[in-house]
Structure formats: C-alpha cells, structure tokens
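#lab-general

N.A. 3:47 PM
ok so I finally got the sequence cleaned up, no stray characters, all 154 residues accounted for. can someone with queue access submit it? mine expired

B.Y. 3:52 PM
send it over

N.A. 3:53 PM
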Amino acid sequence: MESKLQNSILIWAGNSSLDPTILPGNPYNMKKEKDEILESNFDKLLLKTLNEVHYWQKLSGVVTIQNNITKLLEKKDHLRQLWENVMMVVWEYNVIINSISDNDWPLFAEHIQELDSAIRPGLERLNWLSNIESGFLPNAREKCWQLFKRVKDF
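B.Y. 4:20 PM
back already:
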C-alpha cells in the first residue's frame, strides 16, 4: 500500500503546474460572456494539492513530499488568503448582478460599468503571482459593497 500511495503522490506532485516558481499566471477572475457573472480562475489542481498536502504531512515517514510541494506549502497561507478575498469579490459581484431586475438594468448600467472598471485589473492584468498588497482586492470589495447598498436601497 505504501508504494501505491507514494506512486500516486509522485504522479500528482510531478505535475509542472505545481512548481511554485511557475504558479499560475491566470487572472484573478474570469468574466463569463454569456450571463455576465464572474467565476474564480484559481488552478483547481493547485487547490486540491494544497488541501491534500495536509494529509500527506500526517503520513510523514510513509510519504515523502517533493521539494516543489514543500516550496508551495510556504505560500499556502498567502494563496489561501488571496483565494478567499477573490472569492468574496466574485460572490459580491454576482449577488449584485443577480439582484438587478431586467426593468432596473438601464438604471444601474452606468454603476455596473464603474464596478467593471474597478475590477478590470483582476480580469486582465493581476494574477496569482501579483503582490497581495496591491490594493486591488480591498478597492474592488469596497466598490461592490457601495453598489450593493444602492441596489438594495432601490
């Protein structure tokens, strides 16, 4: 069983996308064209690996964790915090979009365009390797909150 487990981890850990020096350069968010909602663009293999490594560590002595995974673990808290904040922006934006009725859409179109401008860096320029202190996420969350209050009060 030990060798089967070790082989499974080696196959998984051997994936080059788990190399922390080449972490995904994908944008924070990805806007879906069809229904105008946002979704997270976080590397799913990376997320799965970060969750699984916790259990691999409990098997110390049985499982040897490769260097690229160990280096990735050093960034785990940073990536978790970044992912959670991005998910909050995605969720808040989608709540706003889904809260506006078709009849009210023309009234809020300009506000949505302003919000889109505020989150554009996360759609186009910023990626998972960007500096978390860039101010983008707090600014995007504040803009979402302001527009949400307007929509709710309307």
